[in-house]
Write the structure tokens for this entry.
Amino acid sequence: MSLETIALNNIGVEVRGFDITQPVDDDMQQTLSALWDQHGVLVFRDQDVTPERQIAFSRVFGPLVSHPIEETTSHEYPELFMLASNPEQEKFLTASYNGQTKVSKLDWHMDLHYTGKPNRGAILRAVVCAEEDGLTGFGDLAKAYSALDEETKALLEQIEVTYAFSMQRKHMRYVDLKGYEPGPYSPRKPSDINYPNFPEIAYPAVVTHPITGDKILEICEQFLERIVTPHNAGLSNDEAIELLERLVAHTRKEEFHYFHEWRQGDMVLWDNWRAMHCATGTRPGVERVIHRTTIAGEETLGRVVGE
């Protein structure tokens, strides 16, 4: 196989010339891993993907980890996380945004960020593509960091930020709540959907990527809570809040984003230590099936507050 890369909108690349039905030798593994480290988001189109092939391909990038929630895991393929439209489940994932009812809309986030040990990355493939909407967005936080002015970069070296898991979106301090109304079945606490009660986690505001050494702006809006002891960095509480508001607005700039419009045969791989992601959601009743494989992360990047 001879690979070619085509730049996507703003961040990441489409990899052409790859065929998932062909063996991947050591040289190809090294090439693919290097492309992933370089670009953060890789798109593969027109692939003849089966669960077995997706799992084998995902292992090119590291050991896999199963999803902790049994209801979303394939019994035949425990490495697969399955997201499928289901009326009984949809009611828990439904909310209103500016008068439009949406299912499975997600704010910008990094997977397992609220644990202090986010996974290394993941691969999504659309088994059944939504007939409309259903886009997945990716945001490059290495590029976002590079675009900051030097004064802000110096300030961020002195700061830790915390993330606090919450089921109720209205309690998330830095997401855009304008026009938002929770659905009648929206979970009110983690135990409502069999999640544990996660402790608050602190991260350096700038994290050095364990593999590439790149500087990553460790700011994404979902679950973002506060700056730890802002006075140690010469900030008042008001200034700390305004700084986080400014940084969140910075990460929302289109120049750091790519939104993937799914079609049959697509796979998308992203680096969860570098890229945040979001989902635009769909109307209720729209059929959509996603298979996901998750690449384990061995590094602990955050710490439990108070420990």
